[in-house]
User: Fold Major facilitator superfamily (MFS) profile domain-containing protein from Lomentospora prolificans.
Amino acid sequence: MASPNHSPPSPSNADRDHVNDHVDDHIDDQPENTSTAPAPMDAALKDDEESAAEVQADPDAILRGFRLYAIAIGVCFGALMMSLDISILGTALPSVMTDLGDDASNIAWYPASFTLATCAMTPVAGKMASVFPLDLVYSAFTVIFLAGSILCGWAPTSSAFIAGRAIAGIGAAGVASNGLTILVTIAPVAKKPMFMGIGAACFVVGLVAGPLLGGAINIPFNALTLAVVSFFFRPQQGRGGSVSGRIKSLDLVGCFIFVPAIFMFLLAMQTGGQDGIWNTSAIIGLFVGSGVTLLLFVAWEWRQGDQAMIPGKLAMRRTVVFSCLFAAAQMGGLTVASYYLPAWFQAIQGVGPLQSGVRILPTVITQMVTTILSSSLALRIRYYNPWFFIGAILTCTSNALFTTFTVFSTPASHWIGYQVIQGLGAGFGMQMSSLCVQLELKDSPELIPIGIALVMFVQYLGATVIQVIAGTVFNSELDSHLGSVGLTPSQRGALLGVGIKGIREVSDTYFPQLLNPILEAYNAAITRAFFVAVGSAILGFVAAFGIKWRPVEELYQAREIYRGLAAPKMSMSFSRDLDPINSPHIYSSALGLPPGQIPSFMSKWTFRRLDVSK
Assistant:
């Protein structure tokens, strides 16, 4: 070993290659650390062996430079176009119905066909990404999404349009969940949360920009996404084995049981929420059929074990369960706010759909910025958990403030400030569930695509269920208050038939003296709906207590050790238990040297506390 009075020699390229060639082959043979000092990193190495080996085996998995940003931009465009497709229908629906010559009988199916298909197919898309090459799976779902969008544009009838929406929903399931998986795969470990935050921010922008941008850019931008991902992205090839073996690993039986179970449940929720009648034979039959089918699905998944569509070792993890519960509650509350805030602007302030979209920009801008910043802040404080609580508290506070809206005395400073709080809460909490599930599954990287898809599935499910509950509260309160105003049942029917944006016109035409009481009734109904969002945020806050506290660096340790082992100057550094001077047995064993002996150039390496903020 070099004398302390002389600078140690720099490692040669041959030395570095010698280290890299041997560490992966011999890291399993490390002797037990007999030192009395604790060695937490030894356990981390052992736990992350498979994950680190994947990085070594596939050096192109982690990208930098042009390829990284090209793929990230393409994936973000995909998320933007998917959310744009969701939001554009709200303002385009009257024109679409007029062009297709449709009446109001099919109006519920226009948005519901997309939502039902996306929610039911999201776990299936995640399972496919864990079995087949990720680029092929993502491209296939993008093509399906494009096909659905094209069919919607060319649909001659309402039935064809609804079918196109359902096809687009199937494609959207894979575009969203597998897009996040791609970002997780290609990004350097310290930047994964930031890239996921940017992807989530693009999704949020699309939800609000739909009325502003329109649907004409959907097809060309999705084609661009498909071209970029197909050309630049070269992932690992999924599981080995024949095509038939991979298809068998998909758990097709579980998929065929799961999809109708979720479809029946969501259809019952959508129909009951729209009609306000829950005791019909059709609704009861759908709920019973869904429950029986879900029990059959659980039994089948238990039988399949690790080959299940949702493996038990994933579904039984406490952190995964409570992260999903938080995600469902958070998304449900945000969905309520995103629907009833524009409704309040249109009904109470009398603005059109475009202006209502502009007025919720404080939420969108704040959420977009905070979503990106929250990842860096989480890395600095070393834990994701505080952001669950902060996000839930801010979301609960903002929705509670929304319940104070009045018809005549709510200034712009109030609804702008309340939305800023809403955006902060959404930005801090939205992506933490996906990040925390990745951290929990670091020892089983093959489950990460399924875990991300599971989080997105429960977000869709939570949004649907909580939105239906809020809609039921809104309809009940509105009917009660309109009755107290003095409107006859036929007058109430006429008023409700024109929707939110037509209430002022109908009131001015038929009963102008009742305009103010009618606005008071709508204001009371909308503010009551926000109480559902408050309860959803409280549920998310409680769920956050069930998530394990694990330091963020656990997600990065093993992968960066393997990738940076031969570098004399490391951008990321680790605890003293990996210092060659303090733990020479790790390196002597891996390099085939006598116990405790290390090459002289290794004495130059320094290992400090992990700093992922660089």
User: Anything to note?
Assistant: Residues 314-560 form a domain with the Growth Hormone; Chain: A; fold (CATH 1.20.1250.20).
